[in-house]
Design goal:
Blueprint: H1 4-15, H2 24-38, E1 45-53, E2 57-59, E3 64-73, E4 78-79, E5 81-82, H3 85-88, E6 97-98, E7 102-106, E8 109-113, E9 115-116, E10 120-128, H4 141-145, H5 147-161, H6 165-187, E11 196-197
Parallel strand pairs: 5-7, 6-9
Antiparallel strand pairs: 1-10, 2-8, 3-4, 3-10, 3-11, 7-8
Length: about 200
Amino acid sequence: MSTFAQLKTDVASYLARSDLTATIPTFVQLCESRIRDQVRVAQMETTDDAFALTAQTVAVPTGFLGVRRIIIDSTSGRALNYLPPERFWGATISTETSTPEAYTIEGTNFVFAPAPSTSINAKLLYIKAFDALSADSDTNWLLTNHYDVYLYGTLAEAKGFIEDDEQGNKWLGLFNEAVSRVNGTANRGRRGAVLKRFGNTPP
């Protein structure tokens, strides 16, 4: 199993520079930022079967990157409709209080319409970022199954730091190729709802 410690060791070996050892964790953090922006695989899907709609505005979960669906009635399987913010606030139901029918995303919050008249437990399926690496023993699905994404991305950040543009572009290109492969392989054959991205309207 790949770990944060192994990644740091391998990056140091590729760089062959002892003066960058203390900075490698920062390079990994920058790589993880790219990963959060670009990697979208089924293994990032997380279910919360008791997501509480306690008010019109409810904070998104920790690590939230996008939503696949929100089911308001587990018996019928009725899902809430997504509306872009401009359409959401133009709808009459945005000022009503009842059982929610629609939602939008603003900043770091879900907003529901009508506003729930009582607390409701919804079934939320959302895209969650992989846990960031911190302790030497830390790992996650991507690091274990697609180690090259982390390695190439971290090396790209390191080469950018030392202003080696040629090598930086080389590793960034390999990172982008690895991301394309993992997205394609992990999602091949999948057909699902349009992803509502965090803080944006759907593409």
